Amino acid sequence: MLQLAVTEHLYAAHPTLPEGDLARRRAATVSTRALAVIASRLDLGAYVRLGRGEDLTGGRAKASILADTTEAVIGAVHLALGQDVSRRFVLDLLSPMLDSDEFLEAGYDFKSRLQEIAAAEGKDVVYALTESGLEHQKTFTATVTVEGVVTARGDGASKKDAELAAAQNAVRGVLAERGESLIPRG
Description:
By secondary structure, this protein is α+β, with helices and mostly antiparallel strands.
């Protein structure tokens, strides 16, 4: 019900958006991150039965557990009250983030988007990494190149963070060049 309700809402609210943009919006809205935010707002972690070890290691605040709990609540509403009520329940739960550009941008997958941009032009994405600093305080710098056409840099405390920052800078640069926005409105 979760995916269906969100998909129907986004399609109705943004009928002119291309399929890829709608899919990115849906993915961000039904993501573990989004569902964990909802669970946190409702304090669902306080009601979850956990094993002692999971409880002691902070399981009540783990995004995956919170997201699964949110899905379980949605499933229970669906089974108990039916499709119409569960659809409304899902949309009410997700309304703060359904059309929030700020929320969508925070969960935007820049590395995947850069791959999509490159693939559309038949090109490959290559990351180069360098590191600096003391062993316990390393800083990583990633340079991303799309077959010599797009080059961007990014820094981070880990290789992953540096690559993400580079991809983010590259995507923003490409979209700015094209006059497109990160989160298209339809």
